[in-house]
């Protein structure tokens, strides 16, 4: 993979940003497009703080995520199988535009890019500079590029992407339901969305204890119904929800414009 192909991928990602959200002096010298400049990621919780650490960014893919996934009880689903599952749920292929929100070090984004051809592009989007530095060093390609911004306000026009993914992040971000609205807003008619986040499946009093521990760390536990209800209210179809331990996997389709409403 040549540097020119990686630069072309970053240019394609840049071309998708709304002009009003693209600062004239946006930097790319660390290998990703930085829309936030010197504004740092928020650090309100222990979990968010960890995501802004260079150390966690460096060990995330090999050590942090497998441990976190095991803690959520996503038993039997290796990182490789989880990536393949996400790509299948998103029906990836061809010259699609794919958005991987809260991409961390690009551990899913690069794989998504490997499923694309031609001008297809997987855009990894995150707020953490250390995470994106790692993504740019390890997981850039001719079909994978990275943008730094805040998922609570995605810098893309409505319906920009054929596929939108958000794995292992909604339980960490502030205002997660605002982020969900944004994921749906940027999904094109006929496009697919896939989300993995936490779910509280315990019976009382276990559920209360778990929620309290998670809350202390800044990890939110969702109930079973909130996300499918938001998907349905937004008009998404083929809503599918599966549970693995304390994780839920959701996928859905935005109906094509001439399809069933
Ligand atoms: C646990 S990592 C998930 C990485 C990857 N998606 C995965 O499944 O392994 C969560 C990511 O969410 C990012 N994040 C947190 N708040 C964010 C926000 N407001 N906007 C964009 N990214 C955010 C963090 O920086 C972190 O990289």
UniProtKB/TrEMBL annotation:
Presence of keyword Transferase: yes
Class in the EC hierarchy, top level: transferase
InterPro entries noted in UniProt: Methyltransf_11, SAM-dependent_MTases_sf
Entry's Gene Ontology BP terms: methylation
E.C. no: 2.1.1.-
Keywords per UniProt: Methyltransferase, Transferase
PANTHER family listed in its UniProt record: METHYLTRANSFERASE
The name this protein goes by in its record: Class I SAM-dependent methyltransferase
Source organism: Rhodococcus kronopolitis
């Amino acid at each position: 993979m040549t540097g020119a192909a990686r630069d072309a991928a970053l240019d394609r990602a840049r071309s998708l940003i709304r002009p009003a959200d693209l600062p004239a002096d946006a930097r790319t010298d660390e290998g990703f497009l930085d829309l936030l400049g010197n504004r740092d990621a928020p650090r309100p919780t222990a979990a968010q703080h960890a995501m802004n650490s260079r150390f966690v960014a460096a060990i995330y893919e090999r050590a942090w995520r497998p441990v976190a996934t095991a803690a959520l009880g996503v038993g039997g689903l290796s990182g490789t199988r989880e990536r393949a599952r996400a790509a299948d749920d998103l029906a990836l292929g061809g010259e699609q535009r794919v958005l991987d929100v809260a991409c961390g070090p690009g551990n899913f984004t690069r794989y998504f890019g490997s499923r694309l051809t031609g001008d297809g592009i997987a855009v990894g989007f995150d707020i953490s500079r250390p995470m994106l530095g790692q993504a740019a060093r390890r997981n850039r390609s001719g079909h994978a590029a990275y943008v730094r911004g805040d998922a609570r306000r995605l810098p893309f026009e409505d319906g920009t992407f054929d596929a939108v993914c958000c794995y292992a992040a909604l339980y960490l971000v502030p205002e997660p339901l605002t982020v969900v609205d944004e994921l749906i807003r940027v999904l094109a008619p006929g496009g697919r969305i896939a989300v993995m986040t936490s779910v509280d499946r315990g019976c009382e009093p276990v559920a209360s204890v778990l929620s309290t521990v998670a809350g202390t760390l800044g990890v939110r536990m969702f109930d079973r119904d909130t996300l499918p209800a938001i998907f349905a209210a937004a008009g998404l179809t083929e809503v599918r929800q599966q549970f693995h331990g304390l994780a839920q996997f959701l996928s859905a389709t935005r109906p094509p414009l001439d399809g069933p409403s």
